[in-house]
Amino acid sequence: MKRSLVELIARKRDGHKLSSDEIQQVISSLLDGQLADYQGAAFLMAVFFRGLDDEETVALTVAMLESGQVLDLSSVRGVKVDKHSTGGVGDKVSICLAPLVAACGVPVPMVSGRGLGHSGGTLDKLEAIPGFRTDLDVSEFSRIVGEVGTCMIGQTKEIAPADKRIYALRDVTATVESIPLIVASILSKKLAEGIDALVLDVKVGRGAFMKTAAQARALAEALVRVGTRAGKKVVALLTDMNAPLGVAVGNANETREALDILHGKGPADLRECTLLLGAEMLVLGGRAANADEARTRLEAAIAKGEALAVMEKMVAAQHGDARVVGDPSRLEVAKVDIAIAADRDGFVTAVDALEIGLSAVAIGAGRTRTDQAVDPAVGISVHAKPGARVRAGDTLAHIHVRTKEAATPIVDRVRAAFVLGAAPPTPSPLLQARIT
Amino acid sequence: MKRSLVELIARKRDGHKLSSDEIQQVISSLLDGQLADYQGAAFLMAVFFRGLDDEETVALTVAMLESGQVLDLSSVRGVKVDKHSTGGVGDKVSICLAPLVAACGVPVPMVSGRGLGHSGGTLDKLEAIPGFRTDLDVSEFSRIVGEVGTCMIGQTKEIAPADKRIYALRDVTATVESIPLIVASILSKKLAEGIDALVLDVKVGRGAFMKTAAQARALAEALVRVGTRAGKKVVALLTDMNAPLGVAVGNANETREALDILHGKGPADLRECTLLLGAEMLVLGGRAANADEARTRLEAAIAKGEALAVMEKMVAAQHGDARVVGDPSRLEVAKVDIAIAADRDGFVTAVDALEIGLSAVAIGAGRTRTDQAVDPAVGISVHAKPGARVRAGDTLAHIHVRTKEAATPIVDRVRAAFVLGAAPPTPSPLLQARIT
Asked: Which listed residue, of A53, A107, A115, A308, carries a Cα 20 to 30 Å from B1's Cα?
């Protein structure tokens, strides 16, 4: 029995399971206009309340995936593996991770996003490299993945158009925070890349989309279950996002810091996060038998400059100025530097990633609406991380702006993001859980 | 703190109470286009799941009411009282009730609706009277209520436009079945009539919108609570709608039957329902001290021909052929008469009002879409009511159609609506509850 579209909304509203054909019908009707946006919105809100089981979520993922082009990377040899992060503050991991993993022999086709709200985006950070283009078409993308081992572009209009349409609706109808909808949105785009395996970095904490470990674990588990059902090898790591990752928050400064990692430098937490995710990718890609072996291989690729060489090739292939790879200081960071100092002695017990992220948006490093531009040169450096012992007058952070006045509205906010206490905090491990 | 519209959707989604100003903001934004239809749909679905408390429902009612014109009937003397039925099969009560109550000195300004689905509509039935117009403007409506005591029109575009807009959205987004939304829809239209008091006939059973006593009671209680909070005197009766009310189901034949009541004839259940509701209206209107006194007054108004005289004046004032009031047989009923006979001896234990209603729609007496026309002359007569003893070959019902073939698709369906048993059913009282 074929049900009408209104009946399908009513059935989901009443908690019934929809068949894969019915979910396909909803998505294709939304795209061809048979299902109006207002009906789509009602359906999404019904899903928000009633959820989707794994079979329904797979059906939604596949329907969204198949609404567009699925890249054919069969000409690229090897097990193609990508990484997706649910987003955080200072999360520039993709930029160093993709060339590093590619340097170890695992092709990494990566379609990334832009920053929105407190959370930054890989595309914005990469575009701080003069000339770098993220709007390549799919044939150029495939060619570069084959030749260089990795390529990083934005979602083209051919990739999962249903996801674009649905995400735009969710954004304005208060239906973003639904695990099955998040899972289908992430996986439909990632599966469209033509990958064989996927490593997920599910961030948890103040600066993450998922604020609690329980929420993050639920999302990670759903991603792994649904991705596996959809025929891919999937591993998820839960990593801490209470404080910003690394030191730099912004765009050019974050790309600098990612390049520092490939130079064997950079902040310890960023290096650790990169190696943890990279090890998973190497094992999934069949280039290491276990995480320890993978880690050794990754460290060697950094030490020998192999990862830097891949990065140089990728930047050049994507029309960017490859000289920045050898000399990250070529990336322009705004000249005015406002230091935020500790007002007393103590231990840094917390650095609120959300507040740092929102402060960065306020000076132009991010956007609150998708049609806004970002200033690649501005940003914040978080020098004192949780656990650090500081004395009154020590620098906690720097704000990088083009004029002194530009920093004024956020000075107090950035200072307040640093919580000082008499005793050091209980250390919060970067890796909180591994889900397979 | 003023919240954005998306925040208001999210707050309702998360089960928070919205302030009256916030509800007003949602409704006015929907009307002026700041809140898109898809956001309205998401809000309605959130309300479906989370509900609205009485204060929120009053705010929604008032916002919808004040989106349009509120009639000023201050020039009409007396306590203005209307009746609203939640709709059923064979429910022609308004047509005899309004002139009867008006004849007893209570002005009845009545804005009615059209049939949709299995449920008939007062406007369609009245328009079976040649020339009768239900599309009068509000000034003519007020004048006729003042001069005649009652007038029956359709919802004008000036009355509660927000309700029209929201109802259209609910209809296509599976958000009709929400008690606070139903309450606000009913009350916003009724309060716009400029009434002082309202009697509600909440139908319960197979042919009603509310299938169970619990649902109907919940709706009736909410209507009374919210209507009272909105400053009106409100009483609700729960009445049985498992079998059709009266004998006639259709349009012209229903109007005939309503006129029969004013002639002191007609089916007992229809007469009883009219008197029950009329008694409440007379008490609310201050024309009787109690239901017994009111009933005596109503019966006298029928016996003395006073109700018929008001009906005649109303039909004439609304441009209809008033001769039908004295001679209801002037109303054309389709000439082809298909009798449905009992196939065995027994007691009628049930007559499925929903099936009779849908059968009437199928022959053209009703509509499945709002843009369809109805044929006033076709219909069904339900001769054997629950409790009746029948012998094989006795007529259970007549189908009135323009051609024999037109009845063919419904003959079996109408027959199957009559359930025969060996023993009489437990009588189901017409009045199931009274809620104040």
From this structure: A115
* ipTM of the complex, rounded to two decimals: 0.84
Kindly state the helix (H) or strand (E) to which residue B381 belongs, with its residue range. Answer: strand B379-382
Mean pLDDT of B56-79: 93
Is residue B26 within 8 angstroms of chain A, CB to CB? no
At residue A113, does pLDDT exceed 90? Answer: no
Question: Residue A116: is its pLDDT beyond 80?
Answer: no
What is the bridge-based pairing of β-strands A346-351 and A418-421? Answer: antiparallel
* CB-CB under 8 Å, B36 with A37: yes
- Interface test with chain B among A3, A11, A12, A38, by most B beta carbons within 10 Å: A38
Pairwise CA distance, residues B81 & B78, whole Å: 9
The pLDDT value recorded for residue A118 is 84
Q: Helices H, strands E: what count in chain A?
A: 17, 13
A155 neighbors A325 (Cβ within 8 angstroms): no
- Partners of A36 on chain B (C-beta within 8 Å) are 37-38, 172
Residues whose CB is less than 8 angstroms from the CB of residue A214 and which lie 6 or more positions away in sequence, other chains included: none
Cβ-proximal residues to B93 (8 Å cutoff; 6+ apart), any chain: B83, B85, B201, B245, B258, B270, B273, B274, B277
Query: To the nearest 10°, the Cα dihedral for B59, B62, B68, B74?
Result: -170
CA A396 to chain centre: 26
CA angle centred on A55, ends A157 and A36, rounded to 5°? 45
Q: How far is CA B156 from the centre of its chain?
A: 17
Is B189 catalytic? The answer is: yes
